[in-house]
Amino acid sequence: MKSSTGKYYLGLDQIRGVAALIVFTWHFVQVHNNAFKTGPTIPPFNLFTEGHTGVALFMCLSGYLFAKLLKNKTIDYEKFIFNRLLRLLPLLTLIIIINGITSIDNLTMLIDYVKYILKGIIYPSLPNGGWSITVEFHFYLILPFLLLLSLKRRNSLIWLLMLTIVIRILLYLKLGEIQSLSYWTLVGRIDQFILGILAFKFHQVIKGKNIFILTCFVFFLLFYYYFDYMGGFFSNPSYPSNSPLWIIIPTIEGFSFSLIIAWYDNTITPSNNWFNRITANVGKYSYSIYLLHFFFVFKMSEFVNNNIIELSNIYITLIFSLLCFLIMIPIGYLSFRFIEKPFLKYRINYLKENKTTIN
Description:
With 359 residues, the protein is an all-alpha fold. Helices cover 70% and strands 2% of the residues. The chain has one domain (10-353). The chain has 16 helices and 2 strands. Strands 1-2 form a two-stranded antiparallel sheet.
């Protein structure tokens, strides 16, 4: 999708579409997860059966894209926040209203729901995956600090990344588990934003390093195979998990996805053919698909299982998940066209040239 600066990156929209597919599949599979005694035997499919990792891909994309847009620029922070509100609030507000209408029966429930939504400003409580929008906005609050830090000291973001890991270690020792904070809050997600920014800073080093990127991705797949084998998100050994793996999972996801984003953006130049345009459009509609799919994905999975084929085989389940995801694309288009897009014309440019660069 075009930013307020008029920039458009087709490849990044394609990656955003992949992230939406991963998250959709995660929820589609969850309905029948108990039927699968073991995870997929081929590691790449673990990214779908543990598709919560798609959120990490979205976070890395945000860090990378903002670093790319803000290169050699000064940001007008108030205008920046205004643009982000225009981009995110209309659909999120509609989602909140729909969830309220379908779940509230009396005044007491209405008051409780309003309190629940207001808590979402700080806590991960917004419905339909809206919790990740809260995390994203927390990132926006510290974005100027991150950019200033990266300008003042070359390796400052690397030191900050190390500090976040130390903080999670200390929290783990105090709380006995860190999954809740690592997954649902900026305590863990900050790594993915930082690594996205760092991936852009070092994109020239990453460009064309095909074997290195492939090697890193293979190790990432093997790690996720191991993570899935150990019980994954819900059963390692329970939820929330007391496994210390959650100290470093945000970092591993952030490092791997950010490398792939920077490599794809700077090594691959997608042609403007029909396939690339369609896959990029999936990314363009991904925000709508992400928030709206909660209304459909579980019912789709149950319908297939009850009326077409029993979803007891993971590979068959993944095939039907892809087919159902295709149904979400026109839904995402309609949402983008009539809910998101009308507000985008009010965006204003928040950038101006600056001689200082992000080193």
